């Protein structure tokens, strides 16, 4: 009996049609994902620009440290940390005190406005203002470079400028005999400072025992570290687009360092045990960097803000670093600041490189805190991957290094990974919607002057309040 092959042909055509539709559906999904990522990246261009600025600053600091280590044969990581943390502690202290004064002034102005509305111009209860119209603005005084969040303003909550009463105020703690008022317990900041200082210390020490290539690749482990700690501590969820985007960025930095695998690191004399120790230092330092970014994001967004974080992290970081100097780096400090005749670098060059490194390191810490206020820890580490590429550009200028195809491929791969990461909704949206980051605002001088005029107007109304109250 002969069977008709027509049904089989129809099945073949149907299967080929299904395959074509499947391929078309996949291509449409990939295209729409990339387009969404480009749209989101373009809409947050200020945040992306801030992240790349931080990466560029970090690259300058790293280049100065590399010259100190390779050409001047000086390595004093705890000393670098001490001066860096001292700078940000001093800056943070002045900024925090200024913020406290402005917050108190805003509270007084708003209390006078509310009292004037309740008393009225004749002192007999609520009434209308005859000559002036009062508008209570619950937003606090802002700087020209400020951060805008979607549902809440942490400064407003901290200063108590909300309409729900004092019960919604975040609890404050006196610090240094009441000289400062902080919004989280001091040992939280001490722990974060310990994590960050040890992370940088371990990475610096790793350069002594293992290859530069391995250290640069290990730095990328801060990305999965930040994702894991964010998931465990902040209970945020990551979509497959976030995971694939992060993996592509890591592949980009691996691709960049693969081009340097044939270069000699000058570490042939190191024993295998020392290599393993250096590798462990690099991996542990990268993991601690991811943890530090997550903890810093929590403290910056939910508690004290950027100024308080700079002051507290700088203070405790300096104290921790000075202890490490006393125990481990006395000889290194002599090599850095001493007049060593016959040294590869003279005193003036070492000081220029040293102050360049600590200045840009301090600027990097400030920039990272500002970025964490508008975004999140995983994206910050994705942004910082390009710092290694910027460092390669410095080598092009300094020693005439010729860039290979690995560099351009790595840069394109990292950019594509960031776009893919941005294609999904922000991980901050999966948790508390009140912490959804939006964008950065730039305020003009005219807006600042109008705010000052409004403040003076409020002060005049406060004088009217006291006058009417006395007449009543």
Tell me about this structure.
This protein has helices spanning 6-43, 45-70, 77-119, 154-159, 186-209, 212-219, 222-234, 240-258, 272-302, 305-328, 330-337, 347-374, 377-384, 386-399, 405-423, 445-471; strands at 145-149, 173-175, 180-182, 437-442. It has 472 residues and is mainly alpha-helical. It has one domain (38-467). Strands 1-4 form a two-stranded antiparallel ribbon. α10 (305-328) packs antiparallel against α12. The radius of gyration is 28 Å and the shape is flat.
What labels describe this entry?
single chain; 472 residues; mainly alpha; two-stranded antiparallel sheet; flat; disordered C terminus; transmembrane transporter activity; SLC35F_Transporter
Short structural summary:
It comes from Skeletonema marinoi. The chain is mainly alpha-helical. 71% of the residues lie in helices and 4% in strands.
Strands in their spatial order, largest beta sheet: 1-4
Q: Could you tell me how far the N terminus lies from the C terminus, measured between alpha carbons in angstroms?
A: 115 Å
- Give the fraction of residues assigned to helices: over 70%
Structural class: mainly alpha
Number of strands: 4
